[in-house]
Structures are given as structure tokens and as C-alpha cells.
Design brief:
The protein is built from seven helices and eleven strands. The chain is α/β, with parallel strands linked by helices and 232 residues long. A seven-stranded mixed β-sheet has the order 3-2-1-4-5-11-10, sandwiched between helices. A four-stranded antiparallel β-sheet has the order 6-7-8-9.
């Protein structure tokens, strides 16, 4: 089940404003060009920001997301993209050059759904296709700094964030939004912080080889960007 921030129509409309500039998207676009990708599957596409960037660059794009409220916004954003309501385990037949998971998408899978997602992506890639995604480094303890940005106001809507618990590899937190009319809506989230070794092992087990692990240019020292290739 997607978190309320993505699935609740009132919150989904706020997501892009609170998310701010996506400094990571140029980096992913450059990787797509580097790999010579002509077609891309954007897993967890959300409101479609990256899928639209890819379409602007002339690529054939499929965006998939389980949160219908976010996907509705994405459909309004760009009609060139093929939007699919679902996840990587329920895809129709596809043969794409590249699959991506930007931002925290790779960390929302808390258990066996991670391997199921990797296998679903594997099936959607053509021979030698690539998967590129990022994951926060557990040793950087990103959650310790989240309290410094615990309160924001955008377009008259107040956002409060609180850490609910750290039980590694799981970190849980809550966003609460207060609207000008006084109503409040909360969205609880949990991320799984996997080690580099754990991620590499899962990729190999699901038919990939790890080509490279890079530092995330928008968050140096805090995230790994994995470039993996389909081998079997």
C-alpha cells in the first residue's frame, strides 16, 4: 500500500511543491544517455517528474506507480508517457533498455517485495538492459539530520515531520500536514536502509551483475547509485 502522501489526492497535489527542485534528475538523464538507452521504465514514477524529463529528451517512457492519486497528476503532466497503475511485479510485457528508481523508491520495499520488484524489472528489460537506482548509506545515518528540517510552510500548508522510530534496517517517520482551514492529514512512512553488500547480493540473486556503484552527486557521501546489467 502506498503512503498517504502519494495516495491521498489532497496530499499528492502538494508533493511536488514540498519536494522542491529535483537536483538528481539531470544525473539520471545523463546516465540514460551514457548507456545509450532509447526506452525507459520509471518504477515508482510518482507524479511523473522524471518521466516527463525523459520524454522531453526524446525517449520512449513507461511510468508505473501504485498510488493512483499521484499517477493521475502524472497523466495530466505529460501525455507522451505510457502510465501504468501498479508496480514492477504486475507489468504487461515490456522490453526496455533501462529501468530507474529515483529518490527513495528502492527503500520503500521492506521485505520480500524488494526481490520481487527486482525480478519484475528483470523481466521488463531487454537483453543486456540496465537498472539504475539509489539508496541511502546506512552508515551516514540520514535520519539524524531530519529533525533540522522538521517544519516547513508552502502555499499556506504547514508540514511537520517527526521520527517515529529507528530499528535498523528500518526507519519510520510521520509527515503531518495542516491546511489553512485547520484540517490535518498525516502520512506515515518506513524506509529500509540496506548495506551496499546486501543490495549487491540481492541484485546478483535476481539475475543482474553490478557494473558500478557511484556516489550520488546531489548527496555526496550519503547515497550510493547502483548501475546493474541484466545477465540472465
Amino acid at each position: 500500500m502506498p503512503d498517504a502522501i502519494f495516495a491521498d489526492p489532497r496530499l499528492a497535489r502538494l508533493y511536488d511543491a514540498f519536494d522542491g527542485p529535483r537536483d538528481d534528475l539531470d544525473h539520471y538523464l545523463a546516465i540514460a544517455a551514457e548507456l545509450g538507452a532509447a526506452s525507459v521504465l520509471d518504477v515508482g514514477c510518482g507524479t511523473g517528474c522524471f518521466a516527463a524529463v525523459l520524454a522531453d529528451a526524446g525517449l520512449a517512457v513507461v511510468g508505473v506507480d501504485p498510488a493512483l492519486a499521484s499517477l493521475d497528476l502524472a497523466r495530466d503532466k505529460d501525455s507522451r508517457v505510457r502510465w501504468i497503475h501498479g508496480d514492477a511485479t504486475t507489468l504487461p510485457p515490456l522490453q526496455v533498455d533501462l529501468a530507474t528508481m529515483t529518490a527513495n523508491v528502492a527503500q520503500v520495499f521492506l521485505g520480500d517485495d524488494w526481490e520481487a520488484t527486482l525480478r519484475g524489472v528483470h523481466g521488463a528489460l531487454g537483453p543486456g538492459g540496465h537498472l539504475v537506482f539509489e539508496s541511502r548509506r546506512p552508515e551516514a545515518k540520514a535520519w539524524e539530520g531530519w529533525a533540522t528540517t522538521a517544519h516547513r510552510v508552502v502555499d499556506g500548508v504547514e508540514e511537520r515531520r517527526e521520527l517515529l522510530g529507528v530499528d535498523l534496517p528500518f526507519v519510520s517517520f510521520r509527515h503531518t500536514y495542516r491546511f489553512p482551514d485547520g484540517t490535518e492529514v498525516a502520512s506515515d512512512s518506513t524506509l529500509r536502509f540496506r548495506s551496499r553488500a546486501e543490495i549487491e547480493e540481492s541484485l546478483v540473486a535476481c539475475g543482474f551483475e553490478v557494473v558500478e556503484v557511484r556516489d550520488a552527486p546531489d548527496r555526496p557521501g550519503l547515497e550510493n547509485v547502483f548501475v546493474a546489467r541484466k545477465v540472465s
